[in-house]
Structures
1.
Amino acid sequence: MNISEEPLGDDEFTPRLDIRSLYDAFDAPVTDFDCGAKCAPYNPHGVPFCCDICEAVPVAYLQEWEYLQPRTDLWHIYRGDECPDDPDDPAEVWKETPEHMTLLACQGAAHCQRRFRAMSCRQFPFFPYLNSAGEFIGLTYEWTFESTCWVISNLWSVTARFRAEFVAVYDAILGMWPLEYASYDLASENMRILFTEKRQRIPLLHRNGQDYLLSPRSERLRRADLRGWRSFGRYRA
Ligand code: SF4
Ligand code: SF4
């Protein structure tokens, strides 16, 4: 996969990404059916939670925005008033946005253009999990969406193709972009701290294709059948 046009650098280094190659290499849906049909009925707005601006504001690399802006009318820069029920103070939200990223809003699920989905759409609800030795060992989920995302309650449904593409793309990104590596290293550490407090194990879709439960304290991995693993809120079996 060739997604970069420049070599490795130091912590301030931002690699030049080939966004189209990145998107083409990471195009598999999370499940082999429309998981949006599983969650949308529970959303008062009637759309999948991950495509509802009132639930999640999409972020994108600045370089994605450079790529997307002249090619599609799908996206605009987030203004803060897109969710009428719960408007944001844009200044506050932008303050928390890393400098190499931008906040966007799309035209909504009914007008999605799959070819121009952002990386954050493609990876949802997962992020690359790094152990305390800094090794990218697999995928785990964004825990703030436990109660809304059906997939998190049904991790068995994630396809092998999605997992393989995720691992290949993040091997490339983390290998060339120290800032992104540091950001996911921190997210993984935060998850270990939180799950230690909650006394819960972390489900891991391992890069070897197997599923595990990870002890957040000892980081010991135990093979698991995630079909019987925890489900949340309205998705409780
Ligand atoms: S990834 Fe989760 S939130 Fe998004 S459509 Fe599928 S089940 Fe719904
Ligand atoms: S671009 Fe498509 S996948 Fe991404 S948030 Fe919008 S509707 Fe959802």
2.
Amino acid sequence: MLDMHVHLIGHNDREANRENIRAFLDEASRRGLKEIGFADHDYYWEQMNFSLIREVAQEYPGLAVRIGLEAEYRPHEEGRIKHLLEQFPFDFVIGSVHEFDGWAFDYPEEEPLHWKKDADELYRRYFEVLTLAAKSRLFTTIGHFDLIKIFGVRPRKDILTLADEALSTVAEQGLVLEVNTNGRYKPVGEFYPERRLMEEIMRRGIEFTLGSDAHVAKVVGRDIDEASQLLRQIGVPTVVGFAGLDKVSYKLD
Ligand SMILES: [Zn+2]
Ligand SMILES: [Zn+2]
């Protein structure tokens, strides 16, 4: 299977050197993955070393090694992202919203504020910015679609209503959504997106990819088998990886 969301340099915790690249690729091979996609946060652009990843990847002929980026989407920064994407022929680009209106909401110390805010308004504004990300034509993939649930705060309104416009835009633009298994290790304790959203995503004909969001080598591929089984259970036939911004399809069986 595949893991299209791993962070070689974590939160700038380590260098993009040979030893660290090998640690990620060794774990991917050990877990029997067919494809792995590096997608470091755009904040650490200066620390990235794409040519070294390409070089080390040659030691792993059985593994398709892709190079992507996880870009922070802020509506007024589309030009900045576009400029970054022009610097390298990426295989895929994940657009993620971890921040809106100047509030980086996914840090543990932000949890109390989540509980204080109006939950419907929290979700409404998050999905509004995510919709702009999907409209921007900058990305192949939208990351952790319902990240706003990270601390377990749930809206009163139906999630399908709150996410409706974002989903329509994702479908119109032919973007891919990931099952990001990392949510299970956050206070909310479940994959992104939740199962009802997965079913709606399938119903709308949007394609899925898979990602562990590993920030360390030892969790590359974590719960990816379970995520693919879950997708198959709800009737999703295939998942996609990426090569040169083109989708590469894998049958779920
Ligand atoms: Zn992210
Ligand atoms: Zn990530």
3.
Amino acid sequence: MEAKSNDYFIDYSDQLPSYEHFYENVMRKNIACMFGPQLTEQWTCRKEWTIDGQSIDFDHLVNKYATLPVPVYDCSEKHFNSNPRTEMLFSQYADYWQQQQQQQVIDANRILYLKDWHLAQDSNCGDFYKIPTYFESDYLNEYCTAKSIADFKFTYMGPKGSTTPLHVDVFGSFSWSANVIGTKRWLMIPDHCVETLKQLIGVNNLPHDLYTLPNYEQIIAKVNGFEIIQKAGQVLFVPSGYMHQVENIEHTISINHNWFNACNLDRVYSNLLNALKDVQNEMSDLKNTDEWNETCDRILTIHFGMNRSYFMDQIRHITTNRLLRQSNHFRYKHDIECLAKIYTKILSNHQFQNKNHEDWKNCESLKSLNKLL
Ligand SMILES: O=C(O)CCC(=O)C(=O)O
Ligand SMILES: [Fe+2]
């Protein structure tokens, strides 16, 4: 079932596309694509974290990162739609992993996966890789970095057999994933087929692993599911709203970012509004209280990961950046139009009519967007 190019996936392993081609034919169309290892060839982590690209250089990694605390998930146990999470020192995780490697057979009752590690941020040093130009227009991480809040730039390390359960990425963001070493098997369900999948198996019955369903072949075919094998050095672009599950079929280290830009900002905006409606329905008892808006935004942050103020502040930040400094760069050429459209939508949406938002509306950069439309 492994995909070569299909309606939802383009394989650029042999030849890199131009930025414009990627923008128009992949990001705007919201389909997946794979880039070849030439994109990561110069990354220092591909050299320094491995021994000739063949095995993981644990000595080097432990030397550098031993005392950093890392988030670790036990893939052999379920915790709602994820796995239980603990924290340990990187040196402890490296010990576990090396032991597993020496045994040759991985203990299936305890498969530990180091995930969502903000390594660049935690170590104050992100020079072990370079973000490919294709992914440089990134409102989310540009904002997080400027505000010194947790970013969405992660390092993943997992033994053969470690898995990420079926999910859709946070906010409806894009993600990209680059293998430093090892191989991943992805199963992807296109965004517009996710509703059908939920109807077929029941919204509350989505398994961690679609392959555990007795009739998985028919189901996957019905929802246009496809597999992608991602090898060392390759970089996968994951579109907005696609459901996916991932298995490391070898010992694997990867760099993964979540982000959004002019192509999917609208999606993030409507996901925010849908999540807000859910919260408002849940909290309807408090509707006539003074704290209504603040309470809903607080709960929205817990459920969705951001709220109205956070979103509006991001729009203000990116708009100011683009207008003051960067609007001429080719990567940003679609941004002003996109930001202007979102600004107009927010202004006319009653969900954003809050007196706390007056200063936002009066921000000079945002107001000048109107003139550019
Ligand atoms: O590599 C993994 O285990 C999961 C990655 C993922 O879900 C993503 O990059 O969106
Ligand atoms: Fe994901």
4.
Amino acid sequence: MATMMNKRSVGAFGKQAPVRSARVAARPSRSGSVRVAATAAADDLGFKKMRDGVKVASDETLLSPRFYTTDFDECERLFSLELNKNLDMAEFDAILAEFKQDYNQRHFVRNETFKAAAEKITGPTRKIFIEFLERSCTAEFSGFLLYKELGRRLKSSSPAVAEIFTLMSRDEARHAGFLNKAMSDFDLALDLGFLTKNRKYTFFKPKFIFYATYLSEKIGYWRYISIYRHLQRNPDNQLYPLFEYFENWCQDENRHGDFFTAVLKSQPDMVNDWAAKLWSRFFCLSVYITMYLNDHQRNAFYGSLGLNTTQFNQHVIIETNKSTERIFPAVPNVEDPEFFRRLDLLVQYNEKVLAIGRMDLPDAIKLVMRLPFIERMVAEVFQVFIMTPKETGSVDFSGNKAAIVY
Ligand SMILES: [Fe+2]
Ligand SMILES: [Fe+2]
């Protein structure tokens, strides 16, 4: 079963799939990275363990999932009924009532097929599978930490919004826990308590947290549902039972994204001026480009599920962008062929940079060799950023209170 490439019809994404995109979350700011002295040498797949059955977390890179923190005092002001007349509490109450339904309360129940399936995944596929699970678990856990802290900090000033955040952290804890259980099938679980205390937290202003979490939830939805549908069409590629849970799982992410739509609607400054347009595009591009480069570094993983990385990514980006244009005031025009042509160039340059990194040469030489490619990557990103965007959004702020016009 290991690394099989699908030889049958492979559905919408051809042959050759998900990691939650870089995802946001938080807590009191701390610094320091997760470099722990491994108590044992690397195993035969190259993974180090903190202790028996517990993996040392991967080093953080520019493209890896991060933990986030924000200005919680400003959040209190943004969700204050006295200070913000645009807060539509009826909408938040409706969202809260939906989250209380807890549709997935009984969804994340494992069965006996997990362990046996994990044992059948061997060799290089096993390694990329574990890396996929770790990235996904870290991203989900990052959401849990941020939402939990927001729930705690908003409790007295805005109880309904606080409860929504707490219920979303419930969902993310389930997601992260389910993925960590999957990692233990491979005898390499993460110590999430240790990560909470030791991983670096990146600070974003609330406005940027909302853009990033909205995108992260929606792109997560599209990734999960696309993989789910692909594997339903191509059951031979169902290497591991985790993916069978994605259909209901992704509905959690979709609901979380819809909550952030309501948040952005309640904050007109975040979606109605030139700065908002600029930042909206910036965040879209950051999220799309990060996913595109990350996933193309992991073609082998997507291949093991019978997905074509490029087709899968382009589908996810196009669909996420369609959702996003309903609330963001500007989004990149991803359907202009120039857009993916430039992203493909970025993938090529990134491959060169990574190949140089693997060479057995002094670091200074490798740096000099990488520079021309890094320069071309920066130039391509700039070119993508100055492409004519789509002016979008559906919120009319001409009155005192935001009116939704779609
Ligand atoms: Fe999640
Ligand atoms: Fe989520």
